[in-house]
Design brief:
Radius of gyration: 21 Å
Oligomer: single chain
Number of domains: 1
CATH topology: Rossmann fold
Shape: globular
CATH class: Alpha Beta
CATH superfamily: Alpha/Beta hydrolase fold, catalytic domain
Low-confidence stretches: none
CATH architecture: 3-Layer(aba) Sandwich
Strand content: 15-25%
Number of strands: 9
Order of helices and strands: EHHHEEEHEHEHEHHHHHHEHEHH
Strand order of the largest sheet: 1-2-3-5-4-6-7-8-9
Mean pLDDT: 93
Helix content: 40-55%
Structural class: alpha/beta
Length: about 375
């Protein structure tokens, strides 16, 4: 286990600034290119974010990235956390480990997904000062390795997390996660049932919706599944391309910081009740840019979706569900896959709840741990 310091080389920072300054913007309809008499059909230029981040938003964000965002200050702030890397099965895994302020605390692992990173939890860590908090970067994200000789799956990520916890000397721990983080948490509990004290999730892993026969579903389950299908009809283009042509997509996103930002931030807008601050959005993009990790991160969609269903997990499970997320699975749906001992539907927040409403996440996680 080695201490790790984030240190983005200045030459790469200069290159990033050059790319941002030289952004080649796509052809789009803007107020200065039309007259008051111009009629633009909605089918040509959908309103707002329907077709993706509006040009006005992206131009403003890139302008702030260039002239208002201070990476060196953000870097110094992130480095106030205790970062480490450790080899697990031949690959280096990055993680943050913040010990409880009052001595030994219950170990809690916080697992991110896509399109976020370990940065999802930077506002949450300080609210969990009575726990030993571990925040890994999943393989293929940020400063963790990008293995090329094995499929990128939740099972691989689960073994990486298990290795980190073994290195730290934690025999038993609670696992919190959302998105691919919840899928990884589920797999971790299946592979290492004696280690996982409990699961605290902000969603039921997305692949689970394909495992339920809608003919046998309850009315509440059918309403949930219908809502997910409605969402999928307009918002899952990213899943289709990332699961079929991740290599093609990665050429453009690895080359253009503005393009990378638009691709990631679209997801935040679609699934957040309150859009995160510009600096939080940019920092998350920076963590993909620094490690050139967009291709390795989206490999989970092409390779991880093929894994066999994990089956029902025996670990006590708490669900904290947020209204702006993809859907709100009823308790009976979650109980098909987990031993649900706590089920809470929040009145605000979305998919990236730890970034958006960290107090709610911290409070529910603490209450769940208190039941174990």
């Amino acid at each position: 286990m080695r201490p790790f310091t984030i240190d983005f080389p200045q030459r790469d920072l200069d290159d990033l600034r050059r790319r941002l300054r030289d952004t080649r913007w796509p052809d789009t309809v803007t107020p200065d290119t039309v007259t008051p008499d111009t009629v633009i059909p909605d089918t040509v230029t959908p309103a707002g974010w329907d077709a993706g981040p509006p040009a006005s938003f992206m131009r403003r964000l890139v302008g702030h990235w260039l002239d208002g965002y201070d990476w060196r200050a953000v870097e110094a702030d992130l480095n106030r956390l205790n970062h480490f890397t450790t080899p697990v099965r031949g690959m280096d895994v990055h993680f943050v480990n913040e010990r409880a302020s009052g001595g030994a605390g219950v170990p809690v692992v916080l697992l991110h997904g896509w399109a976020d990173s370990f940065h999802r939890y930077t506002h949450l860590i300080g609210r969990l000062g009575d726990f030993d908090v571990v925040v890994p970067s999943l393989p293929g994200f940020a400063f963790s390795a990008q293995p090329h000789d094995v499929p990128m799956t939740a099972g691989l990520a689960a073994e990486a997390v298990a290795g980190v916890m073994e290195t730290l000397g934690y025999d038993r721990y609670v696992v919190h996660g959302g998105d691919w983080g919840s899928t990884t948490a589920q797999e971790l509990a299946r592979l290492h049932p004696g280690r996982v004290m409990g699961l605290h999730l902000t969603d039921v892993p997305f692949p689970s919706i394909f495992l339920v026969d809608e003919e046998s579903a309850t009315p509440a389950e059918r309403r949930f599944l219908e809502g997910v299908h409605t969402w999928a009809a307009t918002e899952t283009g990213y899943v289709a391309i990332q699961s079929t042509k991740p290599q093609t997509l990665s050429y453009g996103l690895a080359d253009s910081p503005a393009g990378l930002a638009a691709w990631l931030i679209q997801h935040f807008h679609a699934l957040s009740e309150t859009m995160p601050a510009d600096d939080d959005l940019i920092t998350n993009v920076m963590l993909y840019w620094i490690g050139n990790s967009i291709r390795s991160s989206i490999r989970y969609y092409a390779e991880g979706m093929q894994a066999d269903p994990p089956g029902r997990v025996a670990a006590p499970t708490g669900l904290a569900l947020f209204p702006k997320d993809i859907g709100c699975p009823p308790r009976e749906f979650a109980e098909r896959f987990f031993d649900v001992t706590r089920y809470t539907v929040m009145d605000q927040g979305g998919h990236f709840a730890a970034l958006e409403v960290p107090d709610l996440v911290a409070g529910d996680l603490r209450a769940f741990v208190g039941t174990l």
